[in-house]
Amino acid sequence: TKMADFDAINTIERDEEDNSSSSLESYTQTPEPVIIRGAGNITVFGLSNRFCRDFPSALTGRLAPEEFTGSVGRVNTVLRKTLPVSARWLLCGCCFCLCTCGCSLWPVICLSKRTRNAIEKTLEAENTNLYHKLGLHWRLSRQRCDNSSLMEYVLVIEVIPKKDILRPD
């Protein structure tokens, strides 16, 4: 009979542990990321020539509108400097595509990759200087467009989940 009592106590402890872990999981859920789509009139390989500077309501209370506008403005500055050159190379590459068996598009591909790297570098500097301290993380991500199978680059702002100090290692 002593072993049966011991098993009953174990079962009760497991139930309490299950309840406490489920309440911790519900407490540590992070909100959906905020997605900022391109708002320009030129798109080269899925990268628009500017991003929308309108402050999303989901960031209210987490971030000042001026900081958001400044960060999007810095990303747009990178795009303003690099994307017109890529668009010209794309137009030129398309004109000579048949003559060069597609090799004339390589400069556009390289310039597009350079532009993405410059944006990612800018976002990493923004994250290090400000956003990680506020519990946010910005990144450039490729996503499917809403109405088609085409891909586009968007800015994603994620909330960094806080570490639960009450939960054991």
UniProtKB/TrEMBL annotation:
Stretches that traverse the bilayer: 89-109
An example Gene Ontology CC term for this record: membrane
Cell compartments where the protein resides: Membrane
Golgin subfamily A member 7/ERF4 domain sequence ranges: 49-141
Domain of life the protein comes from: Eukaryota
Family annotation (InterPro entries): CHIC1/2 (IPR039735), Golgin_A_7/ERF4 (IPR019383)
Protein name from the UniProt record: Golgin subfamily A member 7/ERF4 domain-containing protein
Keywords assigned by UniProt, alphabetized: Membrane, Transmembrane, Transmembrane helix
